[in-house]
Amino acid sequence: MEQKYVLECTYGIVICLSIALLVSSDASMNETKTCCTDRFGLNYTLPMFFECQKKGHLNGSMVQTIPKLIPNSLGGGGCPRRESKLGVPPGRRVCRFPDCDINPCENGWCEETMTGYRCHCPIGFQGKQCHELDTNPPATTQGIFVTCLKDITVTVELGTPNKSVEFTPPSAVNREGTVVLVSQNYISGDDFPVGSTLVEYIFADESGNQASLCTFNVNVNTVDTTPPVVQSCPSNQTFSVLKTTTPITWTPPTASDASGIAFIVANYEPGVNVSVNSPISVIYTVTDNSGLVNTNCSFNITLVSIINVAQRAPTVYTRETGRCLDGV
Ligand SMILES: *[C@@H]1O[C@H](CO)[C@@H](O)[C@H](O)[C@H]1NC(C)=O
Ligand SMILES: *[C@@H]1O[C@H](CO)[C@@H](O)[C@H](O)[C@H]1NC(C)=O
Ligand SMILES: *[C@@H]1O[C@H](CO)[C@@H](O)[C@H](O)[C@H]1NC(C)=O
Ligand SMILES: *[C@@H]1O[C@H](CO)[C@@H](O)[C@H](O)[C@H]1NC(C)=O
Ligand SMILES: *[C@@H]1O[C@H](CO)[C@@H](O)[C@H](O)[C@H]1NC(C)=O
Ligand SMILES: *[C@@H]1O[C@H](CO)[C@@H](O)[C@H](O)[C@H]1NC(C)=O
Ligand SMILES: *[C@@H]1O[C@H](CO)[C@@H](O)[C@H](O)[C@H]1NC(C)=O
Predict the structure, then answer these.
(1) Please, what is the end-to-end C-alpha distance for the chain in angstroms?
(2) TM spans, by residue (predicted)?
(3) Closest to 89 in 3D by CA, of 69, 105, 103
């Protein structure tokens, strides 16, 4: 491996050093050919052609530069591809000021990476620079770390008053392991009413420090998939009449639904004129406020002439069976 590095260095130095010099514009770099790796405590290894030196910073201090890679895809051209044989992606190797020196991570700690930096966000922050607030952060108060939950949304059939909702209970720890749950307004499996309910867990350590920031909503939304129910649908009716055309009346059905009833309409209204030997088929269309429809209530109205009934079966024609709806 040593041998290979040296070869690599002597080969690469011709092509790469000049580029590296350009990129870093570091006039003070020596050609020490030590192939330095991570003597800077870096979490990556980047074999170099020369040791990274201290360099004059704009603020006047001498600041240690560290090995960095400018990947080929970004830099364009550069060192020969065979460099990847060392486990190093193709690119130009340069010495530059640590990327973390400019404190790019607003709220986290900054780790040097081979090509730049990575921000490690603390609890409650997210994003590349840890600059975004975590929408539902595990809360922390006085060293108590709470693992909280995101909002939960469930759906129930309209008319259901509540829904049992299960969730992983929030938990909390501190370094000493002395956190206790002080209060909880709901537990997993409780009935949650329709609407939005705020769940709050409060933890505290033995000195009474409280972390009450674990709050989340349980949203119970409703959906209507049940069509309206029709009551008192008139039955099929046959009337014996004297007049060939007679107005017929009936009591319209009623209907109910959790969303309320929007319309009850029929193809014939009570009082419609019906003729003997021309039965009508009445169909009710009931629509609820969710737009669901029930057309199951239908019935026929048939008129037969009393004269015909009497002729066909004279014994049947009595005052009781002869229903004279037109008042005759
Ligand atoms: C100059 O900047 C470097 C890098 O940001 C920093 O480490 C150093 O402390 C600064 N020196 C002074 C005197 O501000
Ligand atoms: C390397 O990682 C450790 C922990 O993962 C961290 O403490 C250290 O600061 C890192 N080093 C650099 C140079 O980023
Ligand atoms: C939830 O609804 C059921 C009826 O579906 C009822 O018996 C129960 O009392 C309700 N629970 C709460 C907490 O309101
Ligand atoms: C009327 O008669 C038809 C056909 O026999 C039947 O399908 C329907 O259910 C009856 N309607 C009522 C309201 O009884
Ligand atoms: C039924 O017929 C009578 C007599 O022809 C008429 O006066 C009445 O308006 C009709 N009723 C309906 C609802 O059409
Ligand atoms: C009701 O009327 C429909 C259509 O006119 C017909 O098909 C059906 O047989 C009738 N049912 C009865 C019980 O009269
Ligand atoms: C209508 O009647 C049929 C048969 O009885 C039933 O399966 C269906 O659910 C009913 N529809 C409604 C909207 O009640």
Answers:
(1) 120
(2) 5-23
(3) 69
Spatial distance between the Cα atoms of 130 and 106, rounded to a whole number of angstroms: 6
Please tell me the predicted confidence (pLDDT) of residue 73. Answer: 63
Between 11-25, 165-179, 231-245, 269-283, the lowest mean confidence (pLDDT) is in 11-25
The model's pLDDT over 136-163, given as tens digits with 9 standing for 90+, comes to 555 555 677 888 899 999 999 999 999 9
Q: Mark whether 199 and 235 lie in a shared domain.
A: no
Closest residue CA from atom 2 of ligand 7: 296
240 and 217, same structural domain?
Answer: no
> Which ligand 1 atom sits nearest the alpha carbon of residue 97?
4
Same domain, yes or no: 186 and 241: no
How many angstroms is it from 11 CA to the middle of ligand 4?
97
Q: Ligand 7: residues whose CB is within 6 Å? A: 227, 294, 296
User: In terms of domains, do 8 and 90 share one?
Assistant: yes
What is the tens place of the pLDDT at every residue in 262-309?
Answer: 999 999 999 999 999 899 999 999 999 999 999 999 999 999 988 755
Query: What range defines the domain where residue 252 resides?
Result: 229-316
290 and 308 housed in the same domain? yes
Q: Global pTM?
A: 0.50
The ligand placed nearest to the CA atom of residue 230 is: 7
Atom number of ligand 7 nearest to Cα 295: 13
Do 219 and 233 sit in the same domain of this protein?
Answer: no
- Cβ contact 177:162 at 8 Å: no
Task: Let me know: does 235 contact 250? Beta carbons within 8 Å.
Answer: no
> Would residue 56 count as lying in a domain?
yes
